[in-house]
Amino acid sequence: MTKDIVVLVLVGLFFVNCDEDKSGEMKPKDIDGGKPKSIIIGKKDNAKMVLIPAGSFEMGDHLDNMLNALPVHTVELDAFYMDMYEVTVGQFKKFVQESKYSYNQWNDVAIFSPTNDHPMSYVNWYDATAYAKWVDKRLPTEAEWEYAARGGLRGKRYPWGNDITHEDANYADMDGKDEWQYCAPVGSFDPNGYGLHDMAGNVMEWCADWYEEVYYINSPLKDPPGPSAGRMRVLRGGAWYYTADVLRVTYRIGRYPTVVNFGYGFRCVADVP
């Protein structure tokens, strides 16, 4: 019996008596024949979530010598669920209305994300974290984000390979399939190998981690959580106004968690016990 089959059997046994109210974890309805379902639907946000399988990958820059993405190192991750799409304006509006969360930048959002189907922007790290908590999820770690963005590919620049055009993503300028001056509605471009849309371009996505330039030197090999402290949080994925090099799966920047921007958004993840 392979290791993966053993893990799935144990997961299936665990969920026979799992607690349906446990935040951020799968519920019995998310199990199909003893295995986690490949797609689940969030209860509060009605968001589709894709199962990202457990595994290992070579994290870091294989091709372009980005110093803050070196050294390339092996990372092992447990399985988790990730939102298929970036959190939308409509989903964030529901959160604000139902939770009474204080948010007052809707006029700014409307310029760059004009419909409920556009990705939420103008959110800082605390806004993203508050939303994730409200929907019983969390922000992805930086390692989870990169692993998911790669879509099962190894050592490539982008979620689909080593090249990029405006048929693939929403980024600087407009051409081909990329017809939007600002943000595009979520899901306007094809998904990666894991079924995730917009892992490159559209809006940059907040991660849970503190940002540290040289973190990879001492990063744990199993489920790295990021530095224990810091001043800035990680953003990944590039945005509609960036050039193609920023959309690389290994590209990482840090920003103060209070910063808001017309190109900063997020998506959530949930644990598989």
Report on this model:
By secondary structure, the protein is α+β, with helices and mostly antiparallel strands. It has a domain at 86-268: Alpha-Beta Complex (paralog of FGE (formylglycine-generating enzyme)), CATH 3.90.1580. 19% of the residues lie in helices and 17% in strands. The strands form four sheets. Strands 3-4-7-12 form a four-stranded antiparallel sheet, with no helix packed on it. Strands 10-9-8-11 form a four-stranded mixed sheet. Strands 1-2 form a two-stranded antiparallel ribbon. The two termini are 21 Å apart.
Summarize the structure.
The chain is of the alpha+beta class. The chain has helices at 3-14, 89-99, 106-112, 125-134, 142-150, 215-218; strands at residues 31-32, 35-36, 39-41, 48-52, 55-59, 73-77, 80-83, 204-210, 233-236, 252-255, 264-265, 269-271. Residues 1-26 have low confidence and may be disordered.
Low-confidence stretches: 1-26
Main pleated sheet: 4 strands, antiparallel
Instruction: List the strand order in the largest sheet.
Output: 3-4-7-12
**Total strands:** 12
**N- to C-terminal distance:** 21 Å
CATH architecture annotation name of the domain at 86-268: Alpha-Beta Complex
**Name of the CATH homologous superfamily of the domain at 86-268:** paralog of FGE (formylglycine-generating enzyme)
- Beta strand %: 15-25%
Radius of gyration: 18 Å
* Class from secondary-structure proportions: alpha+beta
User: Could you say which overall geometry the principal axes of the C-alpha atoms support?
Assistant: globular
